[in-house]
């Protein structure tokens, strides 16, 4: 099973990677930039595996570069906030 098959699994995967990045001393801007690169790669090179990913992919495709940076930052905050809930 791929981490992309289920949105909750994808978020858990992101949260784990975020925790690793933070424990290695990466700053918030670096993490957001990496999230942008991952989002750009996924939107361009993968097919959506569920409804949530399809919506994110459509939004990503329609967004400007600045808006994509905001989407990537929001995904980082999403998984950070779920870890604090």
What do these coordinates show?
The protein is an all-alpha fold and 85 residues long. It has a domain at 28-84. Helix content is 79%, strand content 0%. The chain is built from 4 helices and no strands. It has helices spanning 7-23, 28-45, 51-62, 65-84. The N and C termini lie far apart (27 Å). The model has no long low-confidence stretch (mean pLDDT 86). It comes from Lentibacillus kapialis. This is DUF3243 domain-containing protein.
Characteristic key phrases:
globular; 79% helix; Uncharacterised_YmfJ
Instruction: Specify the number of helices.
Output: 4
Strand percent estimate: under 5%
Q: Helicity level, as a percent range?
A: over 70%
Shape: globular
Query: Got a strand count?
Result: 0
Average pLDDT, rounded to a whole number, is: 86
Biggest sheet statistics: none
**Strand and helix order:** HHHH
Class of secondary structure makeup? mainly alpha
Provide the low-confidence segments as ranges.
none
Please give the alpha-carbon distance between the first and last residues: 27 Å
The whole-angstrom Rg is: 12 Å
Produce a short descriptive summary:
This protein has 85 residues and is mostly helical. It has helices spanning 7-23, 28-45, 51-62, 65-84.
Topology:
Blueprint (H helix, E strand, L loop, with lengths): L6 H17 L4 H18 L5 H12 L2 H20 L1
